[in-house]
Write a structure and sequence with these properties.
There is one protein chain. The chain has 14 helices and 17 strands. The protein is of the alpha/beta class. It has a domain at about 75-110 and about 215-395: Rossmann fold, CATH 3.40.50.1100. The longest helix has 16 residues, at about 245-260. The relative contact order is 0.16.
């Protein structure tokens, strides 16, 4: 393996602007002035690829990482012909995250969540102990694969309704343990379990959107697109659950503006959700700086109806300083909605015209691009980046044998918190 030189960076508080060292898995401003994200400030404002590094680490100049792990893939970007021809777009670029060996894509979990998993797990200055991750499915699969392959202790918390998302090409190492909330629970309930776990000695939170490594790992999709195209796109299309990927795209865009060699524009964020679960769209359409109040039972019913279960976050980083509301307010854009039927049709069109399958969330993004073209929300000669956040899963399963993981513990939605913590602690003894 090529000798790896750790990336030099400082952390920046978005609430007060203070810069500080990344000493102990920092997730927030040390002064706690207000709810705020922190951001990585890299020593080099000029982006350079590192082709000598494997997989995602070719983007290490703008990743807060101190080591390379085995087995990473990276986003790949190509100019569309098939889908572009169908839609009449002259400069449609597809950034594909998943499994597509013929195009050089080797993410074996089939999702861009691998980008964040490898980046997070390479940020090695963490507390010793067990990392805790809550997920609606794709993130869990990516973190489980990365941690299992690299022997990193991990506790995953997932909804039992999404357990089929935990498929792998080989059994997981015992360092990875899975817990689940019972059927009828959702991502919000899985987060509840993870919050209890991090109260235990020896467990620490991965951090979600607050973890700079997660966001900058996801931002490699934009690094791939801009370095391939040679300029910052005009429009950025992605389906969102939490919106963390869109925040990451905006932050990468800002870094390219500071670089100065790739244009001076901000990509309009053309984001999408799977109807009828539309909390971010409903808030943004009213320009509300916070997510609107949501009935728990109605939210669970809506989540049950959507095919793209990974887009089911009820507590997204929307109103926090540096969050999605700020990103949309600064860059501009829109949030669109796609029904299951529209997404299924879009998925079939992508397979027909581009030659690979896409997972349900990515199909929502394709459907929204189709809708944006029909409604003339974008110009036909504009530079468009379509972030396919997951794909090639069916292709991978056809070419490889897979096995499914099962949870060590399944907890009732009304289970006693102390009993939950007692059972979790026993898993790693």
């Amino acid at each position: 393996m090529t000798n790896f030189i750790p990336t030099k960076y400082q952390l920046i508080s978005l609430c007060c602007g203070e810069e500080f060292a990344d000493k102990n898995w920092e997730l927030q401003c040390p002064h706690l002035h207000q709810p705020s994200l922190i951001r990585a400030g890299y020593e080099s404002t000029r982006f350079e690829l590192h082709p000598e590094y494997a997989g995602i680490y070719k983007f290490a100049a703008w990743l807060p990482v101190e080591r390379m792990l085995e087995g990473s893939g990276s986003p790949i970007t190509f100019k569309s012909e098939g889908l572009a021809g169908l839609l009449g777009l002259k400069q449609l670029y597809i950034t594909f995250n998943g499994y597509w060996p013929e195009r050089g894509a080797f993410m074996k979990s089939g999702t861009f969540k691998e980008c964040e998993a490898f980046s997070v797990c390479s940020r090695t200055n963490s507390s010793k102990g067990v990392m805790v991750v809550a997920s609606a499915g794709n993130t869990a699969r990516a973190f489980a694969r990365v941690c299992s392959q690299n022997k990193i202790p991990l506790l995953l918390s997932v909804p039992m309704d999404n357990i089929q998302a935990l498929w792998f090409d080989s059994p997981l190492d015992p360092c990875v343990k899975i817990i689940a909330c019972e059927k009828g629970g959702d991502y919000f309930d899985a987060i509840h379990l993870s919050n209890l776990a991090v109260e235990l000695d020896g467990f620490y939170p991965e951090g979600g959107a607050r973890n700079v490594a997660r966001r900058d790992g996801m931002g490699t999709t934009v690094l791939s697109a801009v370095t391939t195209i040679g300029k910052i796109p005009d429009y950025y299309f992605q389906a969102i659950g939490s919106g963390t990927g869109a925040i990451a795209a905006w932050e990468a865009n800002l870094r390219f503006l500071a670089d100065g060699r790739f244009g001076s524009n901000k990509m309009k964020l053309m984001l999408s959700q799977n109807a009828p679960f539309l909390p971010i769209k409903e808030a943004w359409d009213l320009r509300s700086p916070t997510i609107l109040p949501m009935d728990d039972d109605l939210a669970r019913k809506q989540i049950e109806e959507i095919n793209a279960k990974v887009l089911s976050n009820r507590k997204p980083p929307y109103g926090i300083k540096g969050g999605l509301f700020d990103a949309l307010s600064d860059a501009g854009g829109a949030i669109l909605a796609a029904t299951n039927k529209e997404a299924e049709k879009a998925s079939a069109l992508f397979l027909q015209h581009e030659g690979n399958d896409v997972e349900p969330a990515a199909a929502v993004a394709v459907a929204s691009l189709i809708k944006a073209v029909k409604e003339k929300l974008i110009e036909q000669d504009s530079v468009v980046m379509l972030n396919i956040t997951g794909g090639g899963i069916e292709k991978f399963k056809q070419e490889n044998s897979v096995c499914y993981a099962t949870p060590e513990k399944i907890f009732a939605l009304n289970e006693d918190p102390q009993e939950i913590k007692r059972q979790i602690a026993k898993l790693f003894r």
